[in-house]
Amino acid sequence: MTTRLDRVEQTRGRFVGPPLTPRTAAIWSVLRAELDRRGDTELTVLDVGGGTGGFAVPLARAGHRVTVVDASPDALAALTRRAAEAGVADRIVAVQGDGDALAGLVEPASVDLVLCHAVLEVVDDPTPVVAALASALRPGGAASVLVAGRAAAVLG
To answer: CB within 8 A of 154, min separation 6: which ones?
Structure first.
């Protein structure tokens, strides 16, 4: 297996994408480890705040089913176009909503992998959002959660 952080690549050549920022490369590194742990199993993925599909589209191209929940109708429209252009529109579901309403948007124990990147710092109360993320996971599921620290938010 070759792992290069300048391109999104997954074992067995399933991911290929544009150059990555250090932040995105770190996230893909963690996701690769989780996907490797699961082997060739098709996963059900929930991407909260997934926007235009930077993670959703490559995951769908790799054979997974992805639901993206995002508050922005414009981002979801771009996601829908991007998924169609990549030939994975049938593997991606776009749901308009925000993290604060997540519990009402996702069935409990319905997903194998949750992505929640740069969302918790913008919701009114992160506690119920985190509870909804945990509730959405099937037993043995995994979550990738990224939250900016105070210094990172100020520096960013």
So the answer is: none
